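Cont'd.
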Amino acid sequence: MELALSLGDAPKPFAFLDKTTKLSNNGTLGFCMGVGSGFSGRSDEKRDTREIGDRREVIRSGEGDKKISSDPPVQLDLLPFSPVPRSQPPAQLRFPWLTDNLVSEPGSSDGMGRGLDVNRFPMAIAMDEVDDGADLSSPNSTVSSFQMDFSVRNRGRTKRDLDVETERASSRASDDDENGSTRKKLRLSKEQSAFLEESFKEHSTLNPKQKLALAKQLNLRPRQVEVWFQNRRARTKLKQTEVDCEYLKRCCETLTQENRRLQKELQELRALKTSQPFYMQLPATTLTMCPSCERVATTTSSSNATGTNTTTTTTNSAAALSLSKGRVYQVQPHMHHAHQPTS
DNA sequence: AGCTAGGGCAAATTTACGTCA
DNA sequence: ATTGACGTAAATTTGCCCTAG
């Protein structure tokens, strides 16, 4: 059995999962389990990641160019997962609502565009590190769907509610920046969290500009945004691990049941062999499993007046096993046979 | 090629906050 | 109203990897 570890890699549902589910429903189990490890595993593993299409493959240096299976069976669909590979400089990822919000809207008094009006925050945060470079504004940018959703979501709440909530978080952050003494831990407001969550759905990692833009947008320190994304990735991985664990448990149970069933069958066959010795008079049949093609060759030896006659037929293992039931047979492992052409 | 500094990330851990009995 | 336990999220620490100089 091959276990390929690949936690939460692909953003799409797994075809493999459907397959294994089907198999399980039939009371059998596919002997190929992949359990994902999307965050490239432990830190002590040398790793490299590369994006191929919308797929991300994890390559560990200790394994040469061997790739971990990219088809894990159970995927908790929590991940956006199209992170920027380390090996290449982060391309400008699309954050449509960000790019818009960073550009002063013509006719907009606050200059922050639509959506979260962070200018309502009384405390200005130290954003001198924010690069006001032109890269942040895209000529093709449009109002993002999230921004629309964000506004809709807040519609039921009063302006005062939002102000109070976000002010609490941001003012605490600003206080910390200012006095620099004891750093109080702040809870992000629901709006800030939701915004970060939406960003995370777009991209689970941020390049520096996106980080700064998000920080500015939410009136947080860039470090806070960075930490939030780190923790979010950790949470996602934890959840995925739990899901994988559950899946493996079920696999284990199924395999145990199958093992019991086979043991029982074996016992029955043995009992049959001892209770009905007349079967021994039948010509002995040798089942030979070819390790490469997994075909079973049955060799029947019979004696006649002129000598021993041996015939060999090749069939697939399932058929051979079903034929062999109720019949005395010998199993000879590792006997190579000449592959006969199959029609 | 080897070295170093800087940055980013994962993992582990700590700490502060919010909730509930 | 207070308190302690507990869960969770924010923040910190540590160590590794990668890249640029």
